């Protein structure tokens, strides 16, 4: 698919053209989700995991106002180090393009660009959701509305309990977004395999996920996309931080945030950084492990989808 505002790397364009699997990756996790140098190391490693699983990685960002799909080493480094790179949500995208600026794309924005590029599967760490206290603040991530309208499957480790997981699942139900536990009947909570909430749907293996996605997109009304799906893949058992251990760190981070008066788009980056500090880096190790695990599953789902379409 070509688009006047979009530059796909030759490797990505070639793979899409030949019907080979491609997996999109976001850049907010690089610029605002992890400290340097683990951010750029993880970005490279995750691309490698996708290659080893037989797919082509396509890390997405906005650079000089262009939608970039598939980044080079120097571009990853820039996103990892340049403090001027803003986190851009879907509302920010037109302005960044018009000004010719740079932006690190959130899950929502990455989904939008992936869809424009013709990519259907996307791996990340955790998605945004309904924040605690949203009844007052109305802070609901645009990731959820984008999932309702853009035909991309997002493989994540569920949502962190810095969010209100129950309200997030309710909101996704309202928006008609399939939420599929990957081999588990409990919806995972990012650092922990358990959340206390049941996964609305369960799939065993990438082929089952791909068949569900194919059916979802075949059921789209004329002129509509069929929307996205959330594949909730729990952190590997050996890397998890059990709920009882991570909960105090999350509560501490939330109360520190309130004391500092942080809100809006700064909420998620602040909480992620603070939890790394409070856990002495353990949450970062867990975060890296779960992203790699999601990348592997996303590559398998992308491969199964291509097989169905062949
Ligand atoms: N969750 C993580 N790491 C992240 C994010 C979420 O574990 O880096 C980022 C993603 O880019 C996600 C964004 O789309 O935070 C959500 O931000 P907000 O809550 O402002 O929508
Ligand atoms: Mn928000």
What does this structure look like?
With 310 residues, the protein is an alpha/beta fold. The chain has a single domain, classed as Indigoidine synthase fold, CATH 3.40.1790. 47% of the residues lie in helices and 14% in strands. It has 13 helices and 11 strands. The strands form 2 sheets. Strands 1-4-3-2-7-8-11-9-10 form a 9-stranded mixed sheet, sandwiched between helices. A two-stranded parallel sheet has the order 5-6. The model has no long low-confidence stretch (mean pLDDT 97). Manganese (II) ion (MN) binds next to loops.
Helices, strands, pairings?
Blueprint: E1 6-8, H1 10-17, E2 22-25, H2 28-31, H3 38-52, E3 56-63, E4 66-69, H4 73-81, E5 86-88, H5 93-99, E6 103-105, H6 107-117, E7 121-123, H7 134-137, H8 142-149, E8 153-156, H9 165-174, E9 179-182, E10 201-203, H10 206-218, E11 229-232, H11 243-260, H12 267-278, H13 282-309
Parallel strand pairs: 1-4, 2-3, 2-7, 5-6, 7-8, 8-11, 9-10, 9-11
Antiparallel strand pairs: 3-4
Helix pairs in contact: 3-4, 3-13, 6-8, 10-13, 11-12
Bound molecules: pseudouridine-5'-monophosphate (PSU) and manganese (II) ion.
């Amino acid at each position: 698919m070509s688009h006047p505002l979009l530059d796909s790397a030759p490797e990505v364009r070639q793979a899409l053209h030949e019907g080979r699997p491609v997996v999109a990756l976001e850049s907010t996790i690089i610029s605002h989700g992890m400290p340097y140098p683990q951010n750029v190391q993880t970005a490279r490693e995750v691309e490698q995991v996708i290659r080893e699983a037989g797919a082509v990685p396509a890390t997405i960002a906005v650079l000089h106002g262009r939608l970039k799909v598939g980044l080079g080493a120097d571009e990853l480094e820039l996103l990892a180090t340049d403090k001027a790179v803003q986190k851009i949500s879907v509302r920010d995208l037109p302005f960044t393009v018009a000004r010719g600026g740079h932006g690190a794309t959130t899950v929502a924005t990455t989904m939008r660009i992936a869809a424009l590029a013709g990519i259907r599967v996307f791996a990340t760490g955790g998605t945004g959701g309904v924040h605690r206290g949203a009844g007052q603040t109305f802070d609901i991530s645009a990731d959820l509305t984008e999932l309702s309208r853009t035909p991309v499957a997002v493989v994540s480790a569920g949502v962190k309990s810095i969010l209100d997981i129950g309200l997030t699942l309710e909101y996704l139900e309202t928006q008609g977004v399939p939420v599929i536990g990957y081999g588990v009947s409990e919806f995972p909570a990012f650092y922990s395999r358990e959340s206390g909430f049941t996964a609305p749907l369960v799939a065993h293996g990438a082929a089952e996920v791909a068949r569900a996605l194919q059916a979802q997109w075949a059921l789209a009304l004329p002129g509509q996309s069929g929307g996205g799906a959330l594949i909730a893949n729990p952190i590997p058992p050996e890397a998890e931080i059990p709920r009882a251990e991570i909960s105090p760190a999350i509560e501490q981070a939330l109360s520190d945030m309130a004391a500092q008066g942080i809100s809006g788009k700064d909420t998620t980056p602040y909480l992620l950084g603070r939890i790394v500090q409070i856990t002495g880096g353990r949450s970062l190790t867990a975060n890296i492990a779960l992203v790699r695990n999601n990348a592997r599953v996303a590559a398998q789902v992308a491969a199964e989808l291509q097989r169905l379409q062949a």
